[in-house]
Amino acid sequence: MVSSKLCDISEIRPHLYLSGFRCITEKKLTELGITNAVDVTNIPNNPRYSGIEYLNARVDDDIISNIGRYFEKVAEFVEQARKKGGKTLIFCMAGVSRSASLCIMSLVISEGISLRDAYYDTYDKRPFIAPNIGFWRQMIEYEQKQKGSRNCDEKEEGSFEQ
């Protein structure tokens, strides 16, 4: 069941979508009205489709990778597209860890919601997301710096439903 869902493009918000690399086709992007895409894979020469504005956020799915350097850049890219009536797809290899982390943080930053709420909003639409522990730590740290308190802690980060 989950493996077939990995090939879905999940709508998180009317302007924000999340997926893995292998499910992307020009036809699907056109049908969904995708205007922008954030590529979080490390695949050189990924196909690029005309009419789509791309942002590269190259990150390894590794607990020591610095995904935090992209939180604000991706949120701004998504928000600018939304303001123009556009739709953004954030994708990595499976749409589970890297792209899910950036999608969650885009919600935290642009909507001002808690990390916990952003996680569950995303999980409700794509119930197999699983940011790696290193990404969780960076998301928690970002929220703590921005809001002055933690909404979730390191004991809890591994206990979210997955």
From TrEMBL:
Ranges of residues in domain Tyrosine-protein phosphatase: 8-148
Gene Ontology CC entries for this record:
cytoplasm
Question: What name appears for this protein in its UniProt entry?
Answer: Uncharacterized protein
What organism is recorded for this protein? Parascaris univalens (Nematode worm)
Tell me where in this chain the Tyrosine specific protein phosphatases domain is found. 68-127
Keyword terms: Hydrolase, Protein phosphatase
What the record says about family reads: Belongs to the protein-tyrosine phosphatase family. Non-receptor class dual specificity subfamily.
Q: Does the keyword Cytoplasm apply?
A: no
- Cross-referenced InterPro entries: Dual-sp_phosphatase_cat-dom, Dual_spec_Phospatases, Prot-tyrosine_phosphatase-like, Tyr_Pase_dom, TYR_PHOSPHATASE_DUAL_dom
Recorded GO molecular functions are: phosphoprotein phosphatase activity
Per its UniProt entry, which superkingdom is the organism in?
Eukaryota
